[in-house]
């Protein structure tokens, strides 16, 4: 069984798309030698480490505000 499970991660971030997006961005930062946010990890891969950080409430996301020169079209 994978750790952390998708069910437990979905309680932290409300959509699978957002979960994948946040984990991918953090994994890229870890690949570029960003500072780890946890003492130890179960996973050896960067995506797994990012998911563990989300599960431990060390990684969050927020929606950006629309600026005056952006449009939804």
TrEMBL record:
Name of the top EC class for this enzyme: transferase
Keyword Transferase: yes
Gene Ontology MF annotations: DNA binding; DNA-directed RNA polymerase activity
InterPro entries: DNA-dir_RNA_pol_omega, Pol_omega/Rpo6/RPB6, RPB6/omega-like_sf
E.C. no: 2.7.7.6
GO biological process: DNA-templated transcription
GO cellular component, one term: DNA-directed RNA polymerase complex
Keywords of the record: DNA-directed RNA polymerase, Nucleotidyltransferase, Transcription, Transferase
Matches recorded under Pfam families: RNA_pol_Rpb6
Reactions accelerated catalytically: RNA(n) + a ribonucleoside 5'-triphosphate = RNA(n+1) + diphosphate
Family membership: Belongs to the RNA polymerase subunit omega family.
HAMAP family: RNApol_bact_RpoZ (MF_00366)
Subunit structure: The RNAP catalytic core consists of 2 alpha, 1 beta, 1 beta' and 1 omega subunit. When a sigma factor is associated with the core the holoenzyme is formed, which can initiate transcription.
Physiological role: Promotes RNA polymerase assembly. Latches the N- and C-terminal regions of the beta' subunit thereby facilitating its interaction with the beta and alpha subunits.
PANTHER family referenced in this protein's UniProt entry, alphabetically: DNA-DIRECTED RNA POLYMERASE SUBUNIT OMEGA
Protein name: DNA-directed RNA polymerase subunit omega
Organism: Cytobacillus oceanisediminis
Lineage: Bacteria, Bacillati, Bacillota, Bacilli, Bacillales
Gene, per the UniProt record: rpoZ
């Amino acid at each position: 069984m994978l750790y952390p499970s998708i069910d437990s991660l979905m309680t932290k971030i409300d959509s699978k798309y957002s979960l994948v997006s946040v984990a991918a961005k953090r994994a890229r930062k870890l690949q570029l030698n960003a500072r780890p946010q946890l003492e130890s990890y179960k996973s050896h891969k960067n995506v797994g480490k990012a998911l563990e950080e989300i599960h431990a409430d060390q990684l969050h996301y927020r929606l950006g505000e629309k600026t005056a020169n952006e449009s939804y079209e």
